[in-house]
Amino acid sequence: MWRDERGEVTYTDGSAEKLAFDHSDTTILHNDGEALISRCSQFNEIAVNDGVLVTEGRDPHLRLPPVRIPGNRQAVIRFGLTAPRTTPIQLFYTGDACPAFSEQCSILTRVAEGENHVYFTVPGSENGTMLRLDLGNE
């Protein structure tokens, strides 16, 4: 566990998630570039520059399209990103335990300067799952 000013959060190197992702047989959200960006419902302090998301300001985040993860399953979600410096990123998700975005249903990790692939494991929900990705707010 890694503790920050808000309490305990999980810090992982993503090795177990990477293995699960690499051996999965279902895609729930595909990054098809501009098409995915057009399906995102909210951008906060994020600009789109030639199909690339560029963060601006102190609280950049985006709300991704809803996904369906059966309640008895979980999904591993991979994001590829380039960071100008080591910075935190946090994935919030809704589900049966959290009908709205909250710290309780979020995963916080750090990315290194340069190219990164980050993996998050999200539990399933009978009511559908919404995702919000908070990017580099340091």
Secondary-structure map with pairings?
Layout: E1 2-4, E2 7-9, H1 15-22, H2 34-39, E3 42-44, E4 46-49, E5 52-55, E6 61-67, E7 74-83, E8 87-93, E9 106-111, E10 114-123, E11 129-135
Antiparallel strand pairs: 1-2, 3-6, 4-5, 6-11, 7-10, 8-9, 8-11
Characteristics:
disordered N terminus, five-stranded antiparallel beta sheet, 2 helices, 138 residues, mainly beta
Overall description:
The protein is mainly beta. The longest helix is centred in the N-terminal third of the chain and has 8 residues, at 15-22. Helices cover 10% and strands 46% of the residues. A hairpin with a 2-residue loop joins strand 4 (46-49) and strand 5 (52-55). The strands form four sheets. A five-stranded antiparallel sheet has the order 3-6-11-8-9. It has a two-stranded antiparallel sheet with strand order 1-2.
Question: Nutshell version of this structure?
Answer:
With 138 residues, this protein is mainly β. It has two helices and eleven strands; from the N terminus they run E-E-H-H-E-E-E-E-E-E-E-E-E.
